[in-house]
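Sequence in, structure out.
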Amino acid sequence: MATPKAPADPFDARLVRKLADILNDTNLSEIEVEHGELKIRVARTLAAPAPVYAAAPAPLAHAPAAAAAPAAAPAQAAPAEPKYAPGDVVKSPMVGTVYLQPSPGSPAFAKVGDQVEEGQTLLIVEAMKTMNPIPAHKSGKILEYLVADSQPVEYGEPLVVIG
């Protein structure tokens, strides 16, 4: 009597190991892959460096007696206002490397001060040897590039400001 065969499991442990190796080799903190209904996200947290403690300075032997001054109340830091409106910032949809031109030596897709149209390519993000064009989400003038050419970027990192 034959036992019924279980459906094929789409999980591939070798793929997860390869992704983990890529994280280690490229020093990225996370990587995500989608293929059909299979979606794998591998992330790592880097250990925080051990705190460094310094010895307290020794008191001076002949220190003049000072009147105890009341401690000044620490100034409350006002929350920093964002420099640009959230709707003006184009963010990276993935982890990868930014390129501001289509190929080395080519002119940039656009530069600060250029007028761009919605859907126009602003830069590309390379992820796993795939070049992904990043389009303008609205028409407007490029106010600032927040990344440099060949810079690694994380998911959600601000890339370009369009005003």
